[in-house]
Write a structure and sequence with these properties.
By secondary structure, this protein is of the alpha/beta class. The protein has 26 helices and 23 strands.
Length: about 725
């Protein structure tokens, strides 16, 4: 049986390592000179990261570094090293225990390239907002340089880039399936998801003299094995897709463990789902491993790739997940089940560590947009049970919400008020991956531990989900009433279908915690596409908007909803995008910044994009096919529908409407989407003309006034 959460050792229960005698560093050292000031002759752990070092819990390397420091270890930071030379990885000397390698808070490929594969010219995680300070596939490059610097030192991968590449994965930038990153990086161990439990146990066990090769029993880790699956494991062979029409053999529900063991060799394909499930019920899941199709198979067979993705997503609940194994050549990559979520006490402890909450002093005077965005914000929870197919939060942080206590959150607000320079009394965000999942959970922990649903809110909100927002309402009220706090805003994306379960919450949010604009994400208007996204109907958005307008009016506030939409998502056709554009026009939305679907590694929608199949259902070769806009022209066209008001897009849209037989939408009337080519409006829309004339009139009336003031001043 699985270990109950209540009996999982706390991350703060380990005896302190001997180096705790050095105390707490004002900042974790980045240079030998800083080590000398602390009296260190060496580091126990060195963290290598693609981000600038910002000593704040919103940045992974700072959080893990401070946690290990709390455990008694001496931790150094190598941030944004010059990867072209090994010397940058030797600047702190050889670590005593291991190198921890991460690309940073963002995937290095997404950080550098747009959804159109164009190179970005900025980097919010680099001093000065300068691009190009980290390599492509940073985890691979950094790990290889660490190995070159000190071949005998263990290398452990972590962070979002490693986490989402833990098995064979589709790589959008090269348009092919790549191996597990642990093989390409030549690392010893990979930590996936939030890493506090794993990294704490790893550090203490290595400090006690254990060999890194023997650390194969830690949840939330992946490693390379060359031997066969242990004989005491039940191996479920899931290397082939479902076969439609086959009737599963009935299995006696009273089968004994011995009889189940005898059946082990007969469970050879996933099409025997019923038999497999009934056998597993009689078998210890901690001694069960599911064999995925090999890297070579998923690389050559897109349907098998979608199948492997489906199996992986089913095995993400820490309460019932089983180990996975995938062959790469003559080696296996083994994935242990996900880590158990942190308790509130552990979350509080992590966020209350000795952060300076500032960028490293060496960056003084240099702009860091990522820091500017979060320095007055509070993270109150982790995880997301939404399961949106285009998003990887669930795959990384899990779908069980991990909450901080109210007292810890309020204390952090007071810390910001009292210690952060330039604080004016405004908290910019009180949220997390989703604004309003704080303290929401399954009503029955036993049901939660057995559930394999990919989402708690799709296609409908689960009856077992406790959707009361009382704890969040109380938190909002206490936060905004703290002395010295003028306002507390909520900037995280709102899950409005959940909010509709609490009218009191909506009123509280809209009348007290909206800075003028509220971000929400309907993503699309068409049900066929929304189903592929696992998002609610647009009618739910309409319900929320009515309440938003009502409560804003009651508060005598002029506030606006900012809805986000995605173009070129799997399942979205040209007709779907046309309907979305018409909806935007009817509702007088003219989106300025729009998003094109970005196939990030491991997301279910990415499996749809690559395979043309729907992994939300059982896979077989004659199953449902999913249309996906691919290629620059198709993707640009879908994006153009979102920006139907931009004259630059009109020629492309005219051609598309003509091909679709919708010439009736070309004209200058209210019912038309775009003007005709012969119209004078071809160069500028009517509204743009009005705006231009208004600006011209203002210039005529205001410029002389400014000039007169200037003359008088001189």
């Amino acid at each position: 049986m699985s270990i109950p959460l209540s009996s999982t050792p706390s991350i703060f229960s380990y005896p302190k390592y001997w180096a705790e005698c050095y105390g707490i560093a004002k900042v974790l050292p980045r240079t030998r000179a800083e080590m000398d000031q602390l009296g260190w002759d060496s580091c126990d752990v060195i963290l290598v990261t693609g981000d600038a070092y910002i000593d704040h819990p919103s940045f992974g390397m700072a959080l893990i570094g401070r946690l290990l420091e709390n455990q008694g270890f001496r931790v150094g930071i190598i941030d944004q090293p010059d990867w072209r030379n090994v010397k940058g990885f030797q600047c702190l000397g050889m670590p005593n225990l291991f190198f921890g390698v991460t690309a940073g808070n963002m995937d290095s490929m997404i950080n550098r390239y747009t959804a159109d594969k164009k190179i970005r010219h900025d980097d919010a995680y680099t001093p000065g907002n300068v691009a190009g300070k980290r390599p492509d596939r940073a985890v691979n490059v950094y790990a290889q340089r660490c190995r070159e610097a000190y071949p005998e030192i263990p290398i452990i991968l972590g962070g979002i880039e490693a986490s989402l590449r833990r098995i064979s994965h589709y790589d959008y930038w090269s348009d092919k399936v790549r191996r597990s990153v642990i093989l390409d990086a030549k690392a010893d161990l990979l930590v996936y998801g939030n890493a506090e439990r794993q990294i704490t146990e790893i550090a203490h066990r290595l400090a006690q003299g254990e060999n890194i090769q023997n650390l194969t029993d830690i949840r939330g880790t992946a490693f390379i094995v060359k031997q066969q699956v242990p004989s005491d494991y039940l191996e479920i062979n899931s290397t082939r897709v479902d076969r439609p029409g086959k009737v599963d053999v009935a299995v006696n529900p009273y089968t004994t463990a011995e009889e189940s063991n005898q059946c082990k060799t007969t469970v050879d394909t996933i099409d025997r789902t019923v038999a497999v499930n009934q056998i597993i019920h009689r078998w210890d899941k901690n001694k069960t491993v599911i064999r995925l199709p090999s890297y070579e198979k998923v690389k050559s067979d897109p349907v098998l790739y979608a199948h492997a993705s489906r199996v992986l997503h089913i095995e993400t609940n820490p309460g019932n997940a089983r180990a996975l194994v995938q062959k790469h050549g003559n080696q296996d990559v083994w994935l242990n089940p996900p880590p158990y979520p942190l308790t509130s006490e552990e979350m509080d402890g992590v966020f209350e560590l000795s952060y300076s909450r500032q960028p490293h002093p060496d960056y003084q005077g240099m702009r860091l947009p990522a820091y500017e965005m979060i320095r007055f914000s509070i993270n109150i929870m982790r995880g997301c049970f939404g399961g949106c197919t285009f998003c990887s939060i669930t795959e990384h942080e899990g779908r069980i919400i991990q909450n901080r206590s109210e007292a810890s959150i309020l204390q952090e607000i007071e810390t910001i008020r009292d210690t952060v320079p330039e604080f004016k009394g405004y908290i910019s965000d009180l949220g997390g991956p989703t604004a309003n999942m704080y303290r929401l959970a399954c009503r029955d922990p036993n049901i939660e531990a057995l559930c394999r649903k990919p989402s708690c809110v799709f296609p409908d909100i689960c009856k077992q989900l406790d959707t009361r927002h009382d704890a969040l309402i109380q938190l909002y009220r206490k936060a905004r009433n703290l002395p010295g706090i003028k306002a507390v805003f909520v900037s995280s994306g709102l899950r409005y279908d959940l909010a509709l379960r609490s009218k009191e919450y909506i009123k509280e949010l809209i009348q007290h915690h909206v800075s003028g604009y509220l971000k929400i994400a309907p993503e699309h208007t068409e049900d066929a596409t929304l189903n592929k996204m696992m998002k609610p109907s647009i009618s739910i958005y309409n319900e929320f908007k009515i309440l938003f307008d009502k409560y804003s009016k009651e508060a005598n506030k002029e506030q606006y909803l900012i809805p986000y939409f995605i173009a070129a998502h799997p399942g979205s056709t040209q007709e779907d995008m046309l309907n979305l554009a018409l909806w935007l026009k009817r509702n007088k939305f003219r989106p300025d910044q729009v998003q094109t679907f970005y196939p990030s590694p491991m997301a279910s929608a990415t499996a749809m994009y690559y395979s043309g199949r729907n992994p939300l259902r059982k896979l077989h070769y004659k199953g449902e096919r999913v249309f996906t806009a691919k290629g620059e022209r198709e993707r640009r066209l879908q994006k153009a529908f979102l920006r139907y008001h931009d004259p630059k897009n009109w020629p492309m849209l005219r051609t598309a409407l003509k091909n679709m037989g919708r010439m009736d939408l070309i004209g200058t009337g209210e019912r038309h989407l775009i003007p005709p080519a012969s119209s004078k409006s071809m160069l500028t829309s009517v509204s743009q003309k009005k705006e231009k004339n208004t600006i011209a009139r203002k210039r005529k009336t205001t410029r002389p006034q400014y000039q007169r003031k200037a003359v008088k001043k001189h």
